[in-house]
Amino acid sequence: MLGVPELRPARLREMDQAALRTYAALSGDLNPIHLDREQAIRAGHPGLICHGMLAMTDIGGWLTHAMAGWRLVDYACRFVAPMAVGTRLQVTACGGEPQQEDGLVRVGVELVARDAEGIIRVTGRADFERSRVDPR
């Protein structure tokens, strides 16, 4: 076994308006669909929509914690459906078969994030690597 950790499903934080405002200020993404309910409704949404990149940040934080001891080398997400304020994602991930090359072990992780109703909101992939010798 090459020490790939078991990736247990996780529930991330609930996306609330405070998180959206903080993320908007830090990122500079001031799109009104994230900050102004009336603007979001005029754009065809039922209300405020969470920043996709905020969800990606939360998922990435969970992944890097779950894959402690591995180095994240690539990470990409696809935002399948908008997330309303109040969404709390459940993330599941599955690691592929580890590959050994050039003194490194590499593994790809596929992920899916669903809302409480089971609707897929985000899919993605992350690639990790570490030296062949586990320092632990």
Automatic annotation (TrEMBL):
Protein name per UniProt: Dehydratase
Pfam family, one: MaoC_dehydratas
Segments forming domain MaoC-like: 13-95
Species whose genome carries this gene: Billgrantia sulfidoxydans
Coiled-coil positions: none
